[in-house]
Amino acid sequence: MSYIFNCPFISATQLNRSGFDVSNPDLNTISESIGLAATADVIASIFQNEEDRELEIIRMGMMKNRFGPRGTTTAMAIDYSTLTITQAEQEQASLDTEMLSTLSMLGS
Asked: Can you give the pTM of this predicted structure?
């Protein structure tokens, strides 16, 4: 459908049981069939550990990326009262521009 309508196709999945205690999920921890990982162009994860929860930080990890780097993780600040996500202060200086260009390429 993505190629026919020239738009991104977004889907969501959850972790399997072995992924619940993992600090950085990977393709082995998604609960869907391996076909999802084989056909997807990009698989990103959003995760958080106990320390991150106390610091009001969530992390976005690039599990798979046909168009650029993978295995990277970016911290983001979350305001739980409004569920607003912003760039974490400690990550602003080291923002990976290659990851941003990859994400923008997917949106176009």
From this structure: 0.65
Tally helices (H) and strands (E) across the chain. 4, 4
DSSP one-letter code for 18: G
Query: What pLDDT, in 10s, does the model give residues 12-45?
Result: 888 877 777 777 777 877 777 777 778 888 888 8
- Strand 57-65's sheet: what is its strand order? 42-47, 57-65, 73-79, 84-87
The C-alpha atoms of residue 77 and residue 44 are separated, in whole angstroms, by 17
The set of residues, in sequence order, having a beta carbon less than 8 Å from that of 16 and lying 6+ positions away, is 29, 30, 31
Cross-strand partners of 47: 59
